[in-house]
From TrEMBL:
Pfam families: Arginosuc_synth. This is Arginosuccinate synthase-like N-terminal domain-containing protein. Signal peptide: none annotated. It comes from Brassica cretica (Mustard). GO terms for biological process: argininosuccinate metabolic process; L-arginine biosynthetic process; urea cycle. GO terms for molecular function: argininosuccinate synthase activity; ATP binding. The keyword Mitochondrion does not apply. The keyword Nucleus does not apply. Residues 11-96 form the Arginosuccinate synthase-like N-terminal domain.
Length: 96
């Protein structure tokens, strides 16, 4: 994004993993564009249900510590399984 956008961007939604790259880009957006950063994470079943809430809590703390105003987590496990996993299995995909 060009520097001329500084002050014109009010809010940015960032696909957030909690890794180094996304955690570093949050303050970069704030410093370079002066905008609010909202982090978004899609839960596609990466973690077991029993630890999911603890992981989301830690992810939210990390996002906010890096300067995000909030973390939005959307549970997409059903859609992911129905629209991607099952069609792959029907097509004979093998995971090794």
């Amino acid at each position: 994004m060009p520097v001329r956008l500084r002050g014109k961007l009010k809010k940015v939604v960032l696909a957030y993993s909690g890794g180094l790259d996304t955690s570093v880009i949050v303050p970069w957006f704030k410093e370079n564009y002066g905008c609010e950063v909202v982090c978004y994470t899609a839960d596609v079943g990466q973690v077991l249900y029993c630890i999911r809430h603890r992981r989301v809590g830690r992810l939210e703390q990390k996002a906010k510590a890096s300067g995000a105003s909030q973390l939005v987590v959307k549970d997409l496990t059903e859609e992911f399984a129905k629209d991607y996993i099952f069609p792959c299995l029907r097509a004979g995909a093998i995971y090794e």
